Recover the amino acids of this structure.
């Protein structure tokens, strides 16, 4: 598939790939070093205006926790870049492909053998990537999270989660990948539109299936027992024009001391889920304000907007893949020899899965900015529907309990923060409280 004229294109593509991997890793390392420096420089003083709300000991714990997380992330960034280069230019994917093609693909190729080999290749990459990430993930849970008192899991719990997660992924992904690979082979040049329909349909199905069928496999959900709180929550939802079928409490404390609340589901199957850790820390006023924030996301249609953006990105990505998969240098420039007697769709999809995160990193400041903008909108909505002072005190408690730093580096925030830093949210809420009161 490689002709002599393809050589300049090949070199250019290889250059772009290596350049993108290196640039991404360097930017991430630069951001991490900025974050560590900034947090440490501000370690010995609680920011002005917060001295009465956050103690110095809590502020310093947050600084040390942020620093420890960032230091571990240095290793993760370097490892990820090395792994991606190993899969592509250093021949990892090519070796796995040759091995599996020899094992599974019979000499007189049939549709079934072709599908099995291609799905095995894709699942093989996912399993190997998971194994490579495992030590880093163990260090996250049993190193940093453990040291700062957040981890509640034993190694046994961790192993059980890992096995369940892997089984679930295999059960869900094997048929989905088989369908996509089959479409790539059978649906002609416009396969990517059909693949988009399949993937988007799967995504929507998961939004319905996940809260009711899958989440209970990992956590226990019980009805909210506090009748007074349930009344308040229902009154708030009525005021905001919402209904939820269930008010549930999730045993988040089983795994972690971090607290949260969310609103999930589609149509009539909507449900509000409170982490038990959240109910333990917050007063009823504060719980109401946190829920009002979540309702704000719904009122402003943020969930729908995020879904549409995700779908548009998926469609654009598949369109690019639709063109690239027909082009020989796409494979060779990324370190893989295309198959001569077996289909190349699985390989194309594999290269796509491996390289997409690098491409998307470029968009992360825009995505993060947009998300922070939505958080401000949800806070403003909550300030109108509940007490702004209650949301402010809830945020202070949550940021303190989660040891989130009050003094992140501004550039780190631009790339990585989906929520505005606490200080900015509280300034906005304080001014909302003054206008209201
Ligand atoms: Zn939010």
């Amino acid at each position: 598939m490689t002709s002599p004229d393809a050589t300049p294109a090949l070199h250019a593509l290889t250059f772009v790939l290596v350049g993108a991997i290196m640039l991404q890793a360097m930017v991430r390392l630069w951001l991490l070093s900025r974050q560590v420096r900034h947090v440490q420089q501000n370690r010995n003083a609680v920011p002005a205006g917060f001295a009465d709300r956050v103690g110095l000991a809590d502020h310093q714990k947050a600084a040390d926790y942020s620093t420890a997380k960032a230091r571990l992330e240095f290793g993760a960034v370097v490892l990820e870049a090395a792994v991606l280069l190993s899969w592509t230019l250093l021949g990892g994917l090519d070796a796995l492909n040759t091995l599996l093609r020899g094992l599974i693909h019979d000499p007189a190729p049939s549709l079934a053998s072709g599908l099995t080999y291609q799905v095995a290749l894709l699942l093989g990459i996912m399993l190997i990537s998971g194994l490579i990430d495992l030590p880093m993930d163990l260090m996250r849970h049993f190193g940093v999270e453990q040291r700062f008192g957040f981890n509640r899991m034993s190694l046994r719990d961790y192993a059980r989660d890992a096995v369940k997660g892997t089984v679930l992924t295999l059960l869900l992904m094997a048929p989905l990948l088989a369908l996509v690979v089959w479409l790539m082979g059978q649906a002609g040049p416009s396969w990517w539109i059909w693949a988009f329909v399949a993937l988007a349909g799967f995504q929507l199905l998961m939004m319905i299936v996940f809260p009711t069928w899958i989440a209970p496999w990992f956590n226990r959900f019980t009805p909210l027992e506090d009748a007074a709180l349930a009344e308040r929550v229902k009154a708030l939802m009525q005021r905001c024009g919402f209904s939820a079928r269930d008010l549930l409490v999730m045993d988040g404390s089983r795994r972690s001391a971090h607290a949260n609340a969310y609103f999930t589901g589609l149509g009539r199957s909507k449900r509000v889920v409170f982490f038990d850790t959240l109910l333990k820390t917050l007063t009823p006023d504060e719980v109401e304000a946190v829920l009002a924030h979540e309702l704000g996301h719904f009122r402003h249609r943020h969930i729908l907007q995020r879904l549409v953006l995700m779908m548009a990105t998926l469609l654009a990505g598949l369109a690019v893949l639709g063109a690239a998969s027909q082009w020989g240098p796409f494979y060779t420039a990324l370190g893989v020899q295309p198959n001569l007697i077996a289909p190349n769709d699985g390989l194309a999809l594999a290269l796509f899965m491996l390289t997409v995160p690098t491409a998307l990193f470029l968009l992360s400041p825009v995505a993060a900015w947009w998300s922070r903008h939505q958080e401000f909108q949800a806070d403003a909505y909550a300030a109108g529907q509940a007490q702004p002072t209650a949301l402010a005190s809830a945020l202070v408690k949550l940021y303190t309990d989660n040891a989130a730093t009050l003094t992140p580096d501004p550039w780190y925030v631009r790339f990585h923060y989906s929520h505005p830093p606490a200080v900015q949210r509280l300034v906005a809420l304080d001014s909302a409280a003054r206008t209201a009161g």
